[in-house]
Specification:
The protein has about 475 residues and is of the alpha/beta class. It folds into 3 domains: about 200 residues, Rossmann fold; about 100 residues, 3-Layer(aba) Sandwich (Rossmann fold); about 130 residues, CBS-domain. It has 15 helices and 15 strands. α2 links the parallel β3 and β4. α1 packs across α5.
């Protein structure tokens, strides 16, 4: 097998031959060896670097791509980066069409590499004219000299892994590999590796990891097509069945969820020093889940493919705020804990509809708050906002002596004491305060300021 040259003729010559590393901390209690293949150490930062030259070489050989032509590809980002390396070295233009759920880092990286980026809606069917697949096909037809590699149907995709990734793993481990685990999207990685091992080491188990919401695992298990459900992990899973998936070489499927995959990726960074993407977290989680129930011998070697780098996800799951907003922290924090941190007396400051505006303003000033619910016989009938009342008083001083009933703002949105912090965060993005209900009554009010105070003193509670 070729090694990396001492002096490479171009960046494409440095693709492949990525190292294996033992994941000795996230799998510290396991009897088997879990070995990560660090595909993010490819020059473009992902496993998809491997398929770019493979697909372009084929197009050049068959005369489908002429000098100075344009590559057009539908991708979740990483294949676009791999193609951008080829385009830069070989003098092609590149148009990348990707769905709007992809991270801003990927878009900026593609543009930095000279690609034109077209963003399409992600919540549309594959056959919809607005989907990234449809838009890529249309652009390839409209742009003179354009070629659409189409990683979802291009045999160069799995062939790259049959010729490089699979052999690298087998050689590195001296011919003994008990299992290879990889995430599945286009199916190129797991299918190419699977074909290689079925030919060279039939006893090696090939396991695919699919995100919940994708249609691939359900189709493999039942043969029935189901409707895709949106999910957050980028680059894996599909809402269609790619021709590049070879189900015959995949022994088992494991399904994982968004939150647990992101948390595992964060563990890889903090415990193993491996700064990888969400699909890597999904792959490791799936590998552990499968291996624990597979009845492996104690010295078994399980290789897991870590597809890409974490630097593409700094604005998403590596950001604590994003994790909280999406409800992906494993947290026990609820509205009860946020209220408990306020130490406010009385627990709920409320006005009555019959109170004069003057009295309500004095109440708000005395407790240094800017708003309060208005309760009538224990039911919330509205709210008062200090700034609104003051504006009205400045316009007409006689308002001070009138009942506040005539100057109510809409009631605050209500949540329960058991409402999780993630839902509170989402609520306060739209509303200035949330009224917390406690069974038969109200327990308190949570404002944006209360959350800032809570985060300042409780950040350790939220760490993962």
């Amino acid at each position: 097998m070729r090694g990396r040259p001492a002096i490479a003729p171009d960046i494409l010559a440095l693709i492949g031959n990525t190292p294996l590393v033992r994941l000795g901390r996230v799998a510290r209690d396991e009897p088997f060896q879990l070995l990560g293949k660090l595909e993010y150490l490819n020059p473009g930062g992902s496993v998809k670097d491997r398929i770019g030259p493979s697909m372009v070489d084929r197009a050049e050989r068959e005369g489908l791509l002429k000098p100075g032509g344009t590559l057009v590809e539908a991708t979740s980002g990483n294949t676009g980066v791999g193609l951008a390396l080829c385009a830069a070295v070989r003098g092609y233009q590149l148009v990348v069409v990707l769905p709007d759920k992809m991270s801003s880092e990927k878009i900026r990286l593609l543009r930095a590499l000279g690609a034109r980026v077209v963003v399409t809606p992600s919540r549309v069917a594959p056959e919809d004219p607005r989907s990234n697949y449809s838009v890529a096909r249309r652009l390839a037809q409209e742009i003179p000299g354009a070629y659409y590699p189409n990683q979802y149907e291009n045999e160069g995709n799995p062939r790259a892994h049959f010729e490089t990734t699979g052999p690298e793993i087998l050689e590195a481990l001296g011919g003994r590999v008990d299992a290879v685990v990889a995430t599945i999207g286009t199916g190129g990685t797991v299918s190419g590796i699977g074909r290689f091992f079925k030919a060279r080491s039939p006893s090696t188990r090939v396991v695919a990891v699919d995100p919940e919401g994708s249609i691939l695992a359900p189709f493999a298990r039942t043969g029935q097509r189901v409707a895709a459900v949106p999910y957050k992990i980028e680059g894996i899973g599909e809402d269609l069945i790619p021709r590049t998936v070879d189900f015959s070489v995949i022994d088992e499927f494991v399904t994982v969820q968004d939150g647990e995959s992101f948390r595992m990726a964060r563990r890889l960074a903090r415990e193993e020093g491996i700064f990888a993407g969400g699909s890597s977290g999904a792959a490791v989680l799936g590998a552990l889940r499968w291996a624990r129930g597979a009845g492996l011998r104690p010295d078994a070697r399980v290789v897991v493919i870590l597809p890409d780098s974490g630097d593409r996800y700094l604005s998403t799951f590596y950001a604590d705020e994003w994790m909280r907003e999406n409800g992906f922290f494993e947290e026990s924090v609820t509205a009860r804990e946020v209220l408990g941190a306020k130490h406010f007396d009385p627990p709920l400051l409320a006005a009555e509809p019959s109170q004069p505006v003057r009295e309500v303003l004095q109440l708000l000033e005395a407790h240094a708050v800017g708003q309060a619910p208005v309760l009538d016989s224990g039911q919330c009938v509205g709210s008062v906002l200090e700034e609104d009342l003051l504006r009205r008083v400045l316009a007409d001083g006689s308002v001070l002596d009138r009942s506040v009933r005539g100057y109510l703002s809409p009631p605050f949105r209500e949540v329960l004491l058991t409402t999780p912090l993630s839902e509170i965060l989402r609520g306060l993005r739209e509303d200035r305060a949330l009224l917390v209900r406690d069974g038969t009554g109200y327990a308190g009010l949570i404002t944006r300021h209360d959350l800032l105070h809570f985060f300042g003193g409780k950040e350790e509670t939220l760490a993962v």
